[in-house]
Design brief:
The structure is a homodimer of 213-residue chains. The first copy, chain A, is mainly α and 213 residues long. Helix content of chain A is 72%, strand content 0%. In chain A, helix 2 crosses helix 5. The longest helix of chain A has 28 residues, at 134-161. Chain A is elongated, with a radius of gyration of 20 Å. The first copy, chain A, starts with 7 loop residues before the first helix and ends in a 6-residue tail after the last helix. The relative contact order of chain A is 0.10. Chains A and B meet through helix 7, helix 8, helix 9 and helix 10 of A and helix 7, helix 8, helix 9 and helix 10 of B.
Chain lengths: 213, 213
């Protein structure tokens, strides 16, 4: 599905269904429409803020009918969660070069860069929406857990097994501690996240606050 | 001023002025009006979300004229920043018992509790506003820097001098690493911040990710 389909749980059902009944040309047209819808939703969210975007406006800009959108997504919020996933793209993937510290630095720096791009405006606005919309908040939290926190914990867990990370630490807390500072700066801090912040956080996180004995 | 006056920079000028010309009864009436305005703004923000609250509505509920509000605050956003300060109250103060780890635990737990109270709805909504309003964002970041990050860095700096915290760490990064996970859960996480999170983050932060040598 190349990451452009509806949300994950739906993708699986939909692909099974389409694989058996949809001819190749129709499948290509569906892909094309989906991309156009996600692109239109992203552009409109950047122009107006997600709160002011309507399904009608997305359909109109994408050149599809409103029903085409509702066939694949239950709500505007669900469209935006797929936009988010498409825009994040491969940045959420966790590298594995065998050196966990280098991999964390690479990935945290990529996230910091993403949080400075055009994408940051979209993401901040979507998170703002989530503060007053329980469905968007839940979708966002689930996507974060599945696409970001999970792979990060897995990478740290592997490093634990290889003796690169202390065996007795709480991996969920470690992931929050490393990545939450990037979100803090994106949403409430005075400065934007950057590679200097990544280096500083990683240094404190690796060696800890306690004086060495 | 007991923390209920207009924003800090204004307080100083205003108090100098009033100290010389305002009789005690008028000063008491001013205090009373200010408290009523902040209370009305807080209640309305909880009921409607800060975006939908107007200065007229605050004035009407507080039983004052609109001009009374504009005499003390330049905008609705400035009123909300003072509401925030009043609601946070003493929670932003950093204890100093001589044991920095105990003090961090006390203060981080107090913040986690605040982030679960009614206040959390107000704060989330104000942060949401900040994503699309540069003046609110700047006010929020300044208030955080002055009232929260500053005292936390100072406490860690003192602990450094006492040999309780590693001497060579970046204190700003340490403060972000400790407190950002609470904001992360408040704004985007699946679970609310709690004392278990505080303990887990503190443990990883103290001893670090790297295996002990």
């Amino acid at each position: 599905m190349l990451g452009v389909g509806p949300r994950v749980k739906t993708i699986r059902l939909a692909s099974c269904y389409r694989a058996s009944v949809t001819p190749p040309n129709a499948e290509r047209r569906n892909q094309h429409s989906r991309r156009a819808i996600l692109r239109a939703a992203y552009e409109l969210a950047l122009e107006l803020g997600p709160a002011k975007v309507t399904v009608e406006a997305i359909a109109s800009r994408a050149g599809v009918g409103k029903q085409t959108i509702y066939r694949w997504w239950p709500s505007k919020g669900a469209v935006f969660l797929d936009v988010l996933e498409e825009q994040v793209g491969t940045v959420s993937e966790m590298p594995d070069t065998g050196d966990v510290v280098a991999d964390l630095k690479t990935q945290m720096t990529a996230v910091a860069e993403l949080f400075n791009a055009d994408f940051a405006r979209f993401y901040k606005a979507l998170i703002a929406e989530a503060q007053g919309d329980a469905a968007v908040a839940q979708g966002l939290a689930e996507q974060l857990a599945e696409r970001a926190e999970g792979p990060r914990r897995d990478r740290l867990s592997k490093a634990q097994q290889q003796g690169q990370i202390r065996a007795d630490i709480d991996l969920a807390a470690a992931v929050e501690m490393l990545y939450a500072p990037l979100y803090y700066r994106l949403l409430v801090g005075a400065a934007a996240p950057d590679s200097a912040q990544v280096s500083a956080v990683l240094d404190v996180a690796l060696h800890g606050l306690a004086p060495s004995r």
